[in-house]
Amino acid sequence: RYLSRHGCGNGAPVSSVQGDVAEYRWPSGPLLVYMWNSFTAPVMERVLNNLQAALLKEAREIYLVYVHPELEQMLDSLPWLERLWFAEIEMSEEDYSAWAFPVRSEVCAVYRAIARA
Fold it and tell me: Between 104 and 48, where is the model more confident?
């Protein structure tokens, strides 16, 4: 939906890549990065530095969806990231029945990267 609304036709395919995200070469063009509390603080710092370097190399739209944001303070402290949304999302009964944790909701934050000169 996002791609078609922004004049990108049917859009590019979505891909999933296994590897070291701190060393990952982000593809050109707009990015939507999804993370579910994936990293410890030292690794997250490397990941964010890598993502910022990609933004500095090519000004573009980058959105970061961060579910279960244990390190949200780290992201909130970065001047090149703007938090757009933060909410606790209640699970359906079907989702909760497949969930491995005792809580019935999940916290999610969405950030937008901002290229600064």
Answer: 48
